[in-house]
Design a protein that fits this description.
The protein has 233 residues and is an alpha/beta fold. The protein contains six helices and ten strands; from the N terminus they run E-E-E-H-E-H-H-E-H-E-E-E-E-H-E-H.
Length: 233
């Protein structure tokens, strides 16, 4: 158990790409339950905060037996609200309720294929000299090889490097956040936005567990994979 970690599961009600996705059934289970199940393998319930403005999402979370006492303020449930402000507000609530923690793990419900072992890997790499440990997947596009920008004349040029690489294998590896696991230093998030963190360490997750549910196509792909892999249900 990770008694000194605060788990935050952010789930606002106004999703647009997949309406009501946080409580939509994925392989027979509400999407938010997957993240709650992972958090409960790693921490006591008192260290798990579901951050939602939506009563329906809160009730769906409670059907797991988890208490959902915190409610996200309406001002932090708009399309323009930033994740930093959402995290800090949940931290403030935890502080006011005497919850002691050394780090914060953000578990977005849109990564249902993340496992408890993925989170354990992130936590094992974290120490308080870092701003964040984050899960990544190798990017399918590479700015040294097949990503291009336009110049002032509208002509394409390679984003990085000299454009002389003829094999993708020769290009430097590049990574993208897969949205599954963020282990965050509480002091760092209070001092600056995540995008400005200078001390970030990453760990790679396989592409098969790195699907981030933003569109109906993402959902269909995740459901297909999960139906063929009992370990992910």
């Amino acid at each position: 158990m990770t008694d000194r970690t605060l788990f935050i599961i952010p789930a606002r009600g106004g999703s647009k790409g997949i309406p009501r996705k946080n409580i939509k059934l994925l392989c027979g289970k509400p999407l938010i339950h997957y993240s709650i199940d992972v958090a409960r393998q790693l921490a006591p319930d008192c260290n798990i905060i579901v951050s939602t403005d939506d009563d329906g999402i809160a009730e769906t979370a409670r059907t797991t037996g988890l208490k959902v006492d915190y409610k996200r303020p309406a001002r932090l449930a708009t399309d323009t609200a930033g994740s930093r402000e959402v995290i800090i507000d949940a931290m403030d609530w935890a502080d006011s309720h005497g919850i002691v923690y050394d780090n914060v793990v953000l578990l977005q419900p849109t990564s249902p294929m993340r496992t408890a072992d993925d989170v354990r890997t992130g936590l094992s790499l974290y120490d308080n000299t870092l701003d964040m440990v984050v899960s990544v997947v190798e990017s399918s596009s590479n700015p040294y090889y097949n990503c291009y920008e336009t110049d002032a004349d509208g002509m394409l040029h390679i984003s990085k490097g000299n454009g002389n690489l003829t094999r993708r294998q020769d290009a430097p590896h590049v990574w993208e956040f897969n949205g599954a696991v963020y282990v965050i230093n509480p002091s760092s998030i209070r001092n600056m936005p995540i995008g400005q963190f200078p001390r970030r360490k990453c760990f790679e997750m396989p592409r098969s567990r790195s699907i981030d549910l933003d569109t109906p196509l993402d959902w269909a792909l995740a459901e297909m994979i999960m139906k063929n892999n009992d370990d992910l249900k």
